[in-house]
Amino acid sequence: MMDPDTPAIRRRGGRASVVAAREAEKRPRVSTIKYGIRPVEAVTAEQLERIHQASLAILREIGIEFRDETAIRQWKEAGADVQGQRVRLDGEMLMHLISKAPSRFEMTSRDPSQRFEIAPDTMTFGAMQGAPNVRDLQGVRRASTIEDLRNMNRLTQMLPGFHIAGGFTCEPTDIAVPWRHLHINHSSLVETNMPFFGLTTGKQRAEDSIAMGQIVHGKDFMDQNAVMLGHVSGNSPLVWDSTMLEGLRAFVEANQVVLLSPFVLGAANTPADIPATIAQLNAEALAALAYTQLVRPGAKMIYGQYSVSVSMRSGAPMSGMPEVTLINAVIGQLARRYGLPWRTTASQSSAKTFDAQSGYESAIAYMSGASAGANLMMHAGGWDEAGLVCCMAKFVADAEQNLLIEKYAQGISFEHFDDALEAVRRIGPGGHYLGDSFTLKRFKDAFFAPEILDYLSYEQWKVKGSKDMAQRCREKAKSIIASYEQPPMDPAVREELDAFVAQRQEEISPSIA
Amino acid sequence: MSDDEIILSDLSDDELVQQMHDDLYDGLKDEIEEGTQILLERGWAPYKVLTEALVEGMRIVGEDFRDGILFVPEVLLSANAMKAGMFILRPLLAATGAPKQGKMVIGTVKGDIHDIGKNLVGMMMEGAGFDVIDLGINNAVEKYMAAIEEHQPDIIGMSALLTTTMPYMKVVIDTMKEKGIRDDYVVLVGGAPLNEEFGKAVGADAYCRDAAVAVETAKDFMKRKHNVRN
Hints:
The complex is a heterodimer.
Chain A: H1 14-24, E1 33-34, H2 45-62, E2 64-67, H3 69-77, E3 81-83, E4 86-88, H4 91-98, E5 105-108, E6 115-118, E7 122-125, E8 133-135, E9 141-143, H5 146-158, H6 177-191, E10 196-198, H7 203-217, H8 219-224, E11 228-233, E12 239-241, H9 242-253, E13 257-261, E14 263-266, H10 274-295, E15 301-303, E16 306-310, E17 317-318, H11 322-338, E18 343-345, H12 356-371, E19 376-378, E20 383-384, E21 389-391, H13 392-410, H14 417-427, H15 437-446, H16 458-463, H17 469-483, H18 491-507
Parallel strand pairs in A: 2-12, 7-19, 8-21, 10-11, 11-13, 13-15, 14-16, 18-19
Antiparallel strand pairs in A: 1-7, 2-4, 3-4, 5-6, 8-9, 16-17, 20-21
Chain B: H1 13-25, H2 29-41, H3 46-66, H4 72-96, E1 103-108, H5 116-127, E2 131-134, H6 141-151, E3 155-159, H7 168-178, E4 186-190, H8 196-202, E5 206-207, H9 211-229
Parallel strand pairs in B: 1-2, 1-3, 3-4, 4-5
Helix pairs in contact in B: 1-2, 1-3, 2-3, 2-4, 3-4, 4-5, 5-9
């Protein structure tokens, strides 16, 4: 059975050592994922140029609104054509500003092993954000609380497959809105030691977010290192508002990363046409990207976009549709042309339960983003009901999908090709490779080995309790949360962080009136 | 983690058996051969070496294979190491009249040329200390009958991957019935499209859903058989 050239098999310590080693192999992964596949291109170079030129024409001729006094002043000083809040930008100035942005940058955290690069040839996964509801560990849908958010952060910290904590993976709706950002950041910083999304909804909240990040990481450290992302959404069509731009400035001035996402509801706030939707979306993104460089040349930023099509039966957003897949491919082409990393929405679904629709939509979203070469796979965990629900079971399943998609994105290695062909010679017709030395050497890495997806025989599955995917995922989530350990934090730092939250609660009225 | 400094002959009996369990787990053929020899030189009965060092070691391997800790290629390596130990023990076991684990004739049924699963079962059975006569693929009923006559096995194993070939198992079992020998043998069936109901319907003693279950089932039947005889 064995070939004569079998490499010496060495003692590895029997059962105890192997079991321990297999456990250790499951530790969270935090490194940079490099793309090895060639991205899908949905349009020709000529068609891409038409879209790019259309975006420039939109910004030059129609212009875009910056509903923010500071931004308007900055655009005037930079020499843009400003009338009221309408800013008309000429292509040369626009592209000159964008060329100041770094193509690649690192993110890290207080844990130095959490370090990865965001770049046009890398892939990063972030947990979902913004759900006002959870589908909890009993499978019940209800308004989410701070304890739910803490559990989501615990899962994010423990599951391999995430680079970035979502910040407000679910909303702590049991906390007054004006205080919420304090507790969201507190949980990101205490429950995880990962780079995380801070809050950008307004100047005060963004500045509090940065201040809390600085308490834990040190201001000097953050002046040198990106540990936080700020998500800045556009109001399509063609509006960037003050709330988000204030958040943008706070993050950029503190040397943190911003993600600039036009919000496309295809056929509702863009034309009912794919290339025209992309041209508008791209114009919106380019304007915000250029503005970011106006605020701070060299600022770290990501070309964002959130794209769904809209059901003309109800007006509801639809995930997993072919148009979004096509839009992803073209945004990828444009972002590479501009030399900027870009994001997609990796795991989106409109399903009301963690069912087949949820799986189909999410799988398409994943493949759509990865095959288009997306650099930040955002909302890659938990997203159901068009983002209104964070499903804890789906979060666990998605975490495994992140690893699966990572493997796909890394492409095909030829490192072992010659050795493997030798195995073909050894085995010849009619044999099998299960006991061959090459299989022994490579089987663990050669093929992805999922744990959540079920490959048992029907009988084994029955013996193990006939559990469907949601059930298995909920059990895994429970056991992860039970075994969770908080990452270490200097007690003095923790005290300062807690005191900051208490002090800000004194200063900020809990009333939104 | 690896410790190549271990001198097996320096270990006490208990330590050596423990080390052999680890070495079987790690699939170390040479070390298992050496350990087997050392125990024999120290006056251990071949049957004691088989059961306490080898079979017990493979029981641990089987358990962790079942629980998803060990993978197929690793288990094959362990089975290979076990076989090497068995190769030394087999003539001695015969000479000392020690009880046998059992003998199995195994093959893929007529019309079917799929044998990965069948091979896996064969190797796992050998790993558990059974004598295995592998008839290969595409076996007509005559081949099974001839093998039964020639080898006098305890167990007949039949495998199929195709829904179109699996009914042939019934042909083999019915022939055994006609010849009045069905109850002299344990018949185990397996293959992806089979299930328990099918196993019962064709008159097999058990359906084995995978290689680990095949070994457990075979051992179980052998225990019962010995109890009856004793």
